[in-house]
């Protein structure tokens, strides 16, 4: 996190106002706050301020709100990213038992994070593991905060369709079935109480 710019938050927009309303005055403090709040879906992904109002968020909403905060304060070079990685029990703490139940070693997950000066940063949760999603990243692209909903889902489902074809899993699985497994994984992640930290 120390390589990211630590600018003062000015009241320059809706997102900045909400962070200031929480008593957060600089970007690093905002990052720490967002990382520490529980993993969980907000009631409306398109309203980023709900991360702070409802005190929860996923990789999408947590990183989108941080990217928007940076943008409002003159740092558009803090870029929101969308990547696909092979999610398994080693790089995503908590999903291993769900994948085991379905007889899957991994599945493609669409993940959001931020990038600054060619470095990737993931503030979804605090995880202590030898592996991170970046170790299994297969493709990525910069996106805008407005793309974390419909665009991300369509992109992800299209990737799963190609993955099923390439891995010859189409006989037993289809996109909807894999999506249901993914939803079970998300629910498991949302219920995790234990907090761990990723090693740098």
What does this structure look like?
- This protein has one domain (14-190).
- A four-stranded antiparallel beta sheet has the order 3-2-1-4.
- The chain has seven helices and four strands.
- 38% of the residues lie in helices and 14% in strands.
- Mean pLDDT is 91; it is low at 193-200.
- It is an alpha+beta fold and 200 residues long.
Query: Helix/strand-derived class?
Result: alpha+beta
The overall pLDDT, averaged over residues, is 91
Portion in beta strands: 5-15%
Q: How many beta-strand elements?
A: 4
Spatially, the strands of the biggest sheet line up as 3-2-1-4
Distance between the termini: 10 Å
Quaternary status: single chain
Q: Write down the secondary-structure element order.
A: HHHHEHEEEHH
Share in helix: 25-40%
Largest sheet: 4 strands, antiparallel
The total domain count is: 1
Q: List low-confidence stretches.
A: 193-200
User: Helix segment count?
Assistant: 7
Summarize the structure.
By secondary structure, this protein is of the alpha+beta class.
Which key features would you list for this structure?
200 residues; alpha+beta; four-stranded antiparallel β-sheet
